[in-house]
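Quiz preparation item.
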């Protein structure tokens, strides 16, 4: 039986975050037809100020398999390693964040084509409030359409 915990990020998790992000982000961008927009975490973390957010990680059988970054009113990053997708890790991370943040509304933006992520958030009670198009945060040379949920 698999054992999962969600805990706060520790500096020694950084290598796992790089592996998770770089693999999962490529999948996310491929789904959206934006493969050329990929920026590795070592750059994206600086450009998008990852460590200004609160971070938590999912640990499945003693292996960090996913992470999220958030503020009191926004879920900004959620990545699960592709080898561990569809195991409830994303749901557990989102629930952890919701349970530890009392402020509502709580917002997330999802690439328009990322139907797996949209389905996850809808299953957790999020609803699309608007669909907007603009520059991709962290790689402004690409235009993206996102669901604000």
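Solution:
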């Amino acid at each position: 039986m698999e054992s999962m915990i969600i805990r706060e990020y520790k500096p020694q998790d950084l290598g796992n975050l790089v592996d998770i992000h770089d693999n999962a982000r490529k999948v996310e961008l491929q789904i959206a037809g934006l493969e050329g927009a990929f920026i590795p975490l070592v750059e994206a973390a600086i450009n998008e100020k990852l460590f200004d957010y609160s971070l938590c990680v999912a640990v499945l059988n003693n292996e960090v398999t996913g992470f999220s970054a958030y503020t009191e009113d926004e879920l900004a990053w959620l990545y699960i390693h592709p080898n561990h997708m569809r195991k409830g890790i994303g749901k557990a991370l989102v629930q952890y964040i919701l349970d530890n943040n009392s402020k509502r509304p709580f917002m997330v933006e999802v690439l328009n084509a990322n139907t797996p992520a949209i389905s996850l958030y809808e299953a957790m009670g999020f609803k699309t409030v608007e669909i907007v198009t603009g520059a991709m945060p962290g790689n402004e040379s690409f235009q993206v359409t996102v669901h604000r949920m």
